[in-house]
Amino acid sequence: MSSDSPSDAETDIDVLVLGGAGVDTIVYVPELPLPFADSHMIRPGIETRAGQTGDFVALGLHRLGLRTHHLDLVGADPEGELVRRFHRDQGIPLTEVPHPAGTKRAVNLVGPDGRRLSLYDATRGHDDDRLPPETVKALAARSGHAHVSITQPCAHALPALRDAGVTLSTDLHDWDGSSPYHEPFAHGADVVFLSAVALDDPERTMRGIAAHGRASVVVATAGADGAYLLDGAGSQLVHVPAVTPPAPVVDSNGAGDAFAAGFLAAWLSGAPVRECALHGSVAGAYACTVPATRTDAIGRDALRAEVARLSAAAGGH
């Protein structure tokens, strides 16, 4: 953590997660892309459950023993009740700001190999949406770190979070390296995660983030190809091999969120960044074995045991 972060004596929140609360409808399809047809018979079925990027990062951090608090806009609708129930059942505190447009929702098409195509309902947000500044400031004052989802309206909370002196992280997901919407997040966080899926040159994008922003660590995840790690603007790009999942891969939904949670839990404890990446890789690999219709994340003991096993095996070579 940075030297100007609030002391442990002043905080009761290890990580404040902003944004990314919502509901997904999971549809398992026979293949992706889905062939055009008048109809498809879907098995194992269609299920709606709470859990979008902020929910899953909060869950991952909570399961790893960090005191986690979630803040977002939530509607007074059935989807909002699913979000509230998710947090109650998991024991994760939620500060919800009433949102007239309703709770964020998406449809996830999941193929047999676990790949996912997400369709987000863009009507659930407006350009003038804001998290109340006084609420952001009050929660940030109690926090040691903040993870900021790229959902509207979290970019507007970045100045208040920086004023509070907390370290910041964000996940740019499938940013193409040029969309201006992502730039406040990319340039405003100390730790930046993103997917390499839409990048022609991941290293160039990562170095641009480090050069133009405040990031000391940039991580680009690449699925089965592992991840790329940049520890400081002038450092060498490091490839982090993928970790073999402990069970068959059934769904990639939430793997990036799990990676971020595992990485951050280690980073906030002061671990070296390569060790943090290993924690993230183990957490992400576990997430790929969990069906999207079920809510789960790796626990602290299991994560530590697998990291220790892999570290010992690597040392043995």
Automatic annotation (TrEMBL):
Membrane-spanning intervals of the chain: none
Keyword line: Kinase, Transferase
Keyword Cell membrane: no
Record-linked InterPro entries: Carboh/pur_kinase_PfkB_CS, PfkB_dom, Ribokinase-like
Any one GO MF annotation of this record: kinase activity
Pfam families xref list: PfkB
Carbohydrate kinase PfkB domain sequence ranges: 15-295
Gene3D superfamilies: 3.40.1190.20
Transferase among keywords: yes
Annotated protein name in UniProt: Sugar kinase
Protein species of origin: Streptomyces showdoensis
Source lineage: Bacteria, Bacillati, Actinomycetota, Actinomycetes, Kitasatosporales
